[in-house]
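Sequence only, no structure available. Ideas?
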Amino acid sequence: MGYFWLPHSVETAWFLTPEERRYASSRVVKDRAAQEGSATSSKHRDSNSFSAISTTDEESRGLLNPVTASSSDRRATLDDRGLTPHDILSALSSPLVWHLLACNILSAIPVYAFSVFLPLVLAPLTGNKASPSLLNLLTAPPHVCGAITLYLFASYSDRHRTRLRPILLGLGIMVTGLSLVVVLPTTWAVPRYLSLNILISGAYIASPLTVAWISGNTPSPGKRALMLGVNGWGNLAGVISAMLFRPQYAETGYIVPFFCTLLSVAAAAGGYVLFLRNLSKENARRRALVHEWDADERESERSEGLGPLVVERRWLARVIAALRKTEVSPRMVAWLEDATQGGREGDEKMTFEYGL
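Reply:
I predicted one. Tokens follow.
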């Protein structure tokens, strides 16, 4: 229903008055073009350096040496073309989005588990004698701890333009809390309750900062929307948590579900470490590659994604060739060919450096 009901852009928002549309449109333009001013006011750097200035987005490390925003940068910043074949192909074939999705699912299991099942988990700690109202009241302090911690981490992340390291620290807090819950005897009600507070303090950090990373490192609006949609499948963590925290584990204080949750969070932490390592290596590779180019080649890559590096999609060429032979879907062949036209876009450009 949303596909047909939601407006394509501010200018087509039927529920706004003409004046409200103009005002909202000006805010979108200012938001997307915010970095032009920061790029203009920044100091010039050496011509062979990899600049940390971005004219397209305030978080990603941006384009190489964008001392001033060109007209092509401005068009890209204000682009509202919707989804293109290139956006769809680039998003779905990106290993980054699937890597993050797996990490997001694993790290979000405690969020869904304790949002729904925390009263059940607390029941054994009170000897199953507490009233339902008391059990629900006891769920408040852990979530207050989670809210405060998320605010502090998100504020730090915004100020310092870093996402992955705060995520890892949040997962570390979760692992600490889960380890204590697993290790402490079930008869130690107060220490285990305090451990739950520690656990939930770190539970809410990973998912929103993952969304922030995707938003800040995907300049193409269509690709960004699709990658955020794919990342939304992290809600599958709710299905997994429901399968873990079953009533049959209540007598043992839910030790088995807690242990499985600990393994999942530890795996998510390992996944984010690998993600951070891969991005650092990719940024270093791009710096070394672009360093060998001359000024014209860097400008061609920065503006059109047509630097000296050839755009290679060998697997896609084989798919197109196979479809041509079958003659089953000429429209699909045409769509795939359209998706491969042009140069690299957004974060595909060798002059783009991922934020960490």
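Confidence is low (pLDDT under 50) at residues 35-79.
Hope that gets you unstuck.
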